[in-house]
Amino acid sequence: MTLTQWLLFFLIIQIIHFLATWKLYVKAGRQAWEAAIPVYNAVVLMQIINRPKWWVILLFIPVINLFMFPVIWVETIRSFGRNSRLDTILVIITLGFYIFYVNYILDVEYIEDRSLTPKSAAGEWISSIVFAIITATLVHTYVMQPYTIPSSSLEKTLLIGDFLFVSKFHYGARVPMTTIAAPMVHDTIPVLKKKSYLFSDHIEEKETSWLNKFQLPYLRIPGFQKIERNSIVVFNQPADTLLDMNKFHPDRNYYKPIDKKTNLVKRCVAIAGDSLEIRDGYIYINGKRTKYNDRAKIQYNFYVNTDGKPLNQAALI
């Protein structure tokens, strides 16, 4: 969606919030108009449900907010005495619209000093798991992410199967563009082998599918370090045609969102404004031959150990 469309969507959400909660705000000793002011209404709601105000920030972080909204819905109805398991299930499966029923139909009272401690062991486990996922997703998305090397393109520096952590904040973390996606995974959900995000990947539906309307514009948080020559970097493959980054089966009719394209790890040999030439297998940047350390030098000879069987000559050609 465009910025204008997102602003319109945000306005609609604010109207729904006002209609669903204004009577609850009044019962909590607040003014009805406070439920109508964007952002401010969220701050007031945090006060009503006795939760920290910084939770409001989490409501605006893509993927994280998918977990925070259900938490806020549940906390809201519990602040007005709706603590049963059925109430919790109803407010979640109705995507929060159960609050309309609580607001207009039920005669509820505000519980100002309600206990914030889960009433059961299961509730405590669920609460801990949810916030562990939120914390891990924040770190995974904006601070540091683990990767496993899938290919031999950087052999002698990084080998197949090597496990590494990659900093995201040095160059500036990219805000997720795909707003509806599973946390802490890339394009595929492990074990299930299913797509981890809501998006129509067929190129003919790129501009028309309603699933693709929930994409955010490209936005990157400012970093404090610039990419230098010979740095090893991780990036998304620009022309990605893989259905699953773990299986090499290209499909030219396949289009993935930018932040879900296959991850690649490569060495940056040149930066913007440089001239690049390849002469006799050597890279020249701005007319000067690039010098590599021993682990990055070009390899001309390979030693191959076999189990005694001859090599397949056709495969070597």
Molecular structure report:
This protein is α+β, with helices and mostly antiparallel strands and 317 residues long. It has two domains: 3-111, no CATH class; 142-275, no CATH class. 30% of the residues lie in helices and 13% in strands. The chain has helices at residues 3-27, 40-48, 55-58, 64-78, 85-93, 98-104, 121-142, 313-316, and strands at 144-148, 163-167, 188-189, 194-195, 232-236, 242-244, 247-250, 263-267, 276-279, 282-285, 288-289. The strands form five sheets. A three-stranded antiparallel beta sheet has the order 9-10-11, with no helix packed on it. It has a two-stranded antiparallel sheet with strand order 1-2. Strand 9 and strand 10 (282-285) form a beta hairpin. Helix 4 crosses helix 5. The radius of gyration is 26 Å and the shape is elongated. The chain starts with a helix and ends with a helix.
Helix count equals 8
Order of helices and strands: HHHHHHHEEEEEEEEEEEH
The rounded Rg comes to: 26 Å
Low-confidence stretches: none
Structural class: alpha+beta
Spatial sequence of strands, sheet with the most strands: 9-10-11
Largest sheet: 3 strands, antiparallel
Strand content: 5-15%
The first-to-last residue Cα distance is: 49 Å
Globally, the shape reads elongated
Helical fraction equals 25-40%
